[in-house]
Amino acid sequence: xxxxxxxxxxxxxxxxxxxxxxxxxxxxxxxxxxxxxxxxxxxxxxxxxxxxxxxxxxxxxxxxxxxxxxxxxxxxxxxxxxxxxxxxxxxxxxxxxxxxxxxxxxxxxxxxxxxxxxxxxxxxxxxxxxxxxxxxxxxxxxxxxxxxxxxxxxxxxxxxxxxxxxxxxxxxxxxxxxxxxxxxxxxxxxxxxxxxxxxxxxxxxxxxxxxxxxxxxxxxx
Length: 221
Hints:
There is one protein chain. This protein is 51% helix and 2% strand. By secondary structure, the protein is mainly alpha-helical. It has one domain: Orthogonal Bundle (Cytochrome Bc1 Complex, Chain D, domain 2). Strands 1-2 form a two-stranded antiparallel ribbon. The longest helix has 23 residues. The N and C termini lie far apart (55 Å).
């Protein structure tokens, strides 16, 4: 029993150390610009749609938080987010690659020295307000849905509605090898809603001005 405990303890320490190490790695924007060949074929085309496992516009990632992008890529790599294509791409990246790409996309399309946008949040309908309040969405993602309280949480304002709907639904899925997201907090939130309600939320969030954008690539390489 002591030997088993020692082994498990050593494994836990090893995993914790690895996780801490991956979070401590500093991303390099210039390095990320040279590593994005696998990204631009989907995320660098306006209106580009994924066709598997569902049809929806791929998410806008330019202007997204670096820490969120890092967390998302690691989740795909670990299988916590089930998407065959993204799992394959994430598996091909080491921790430094992920940090570099995340740093690059966090400033991609952002004018150097530009002041933060001064936005007025579009007021939701009474029905959408009730849905937002039900899970207190703004408490994590910010009152304007572009300034989350933790940079590892995504900016949502202006993101594609069909992507947001698919992403929110994914937190409700269980025991599916190709679809689903394992996040206890978001699963608890998403399961409070019907799919019709999630679509209303997604449509509203997409209508809010935000930092996210698609920056078309001048060439593919």
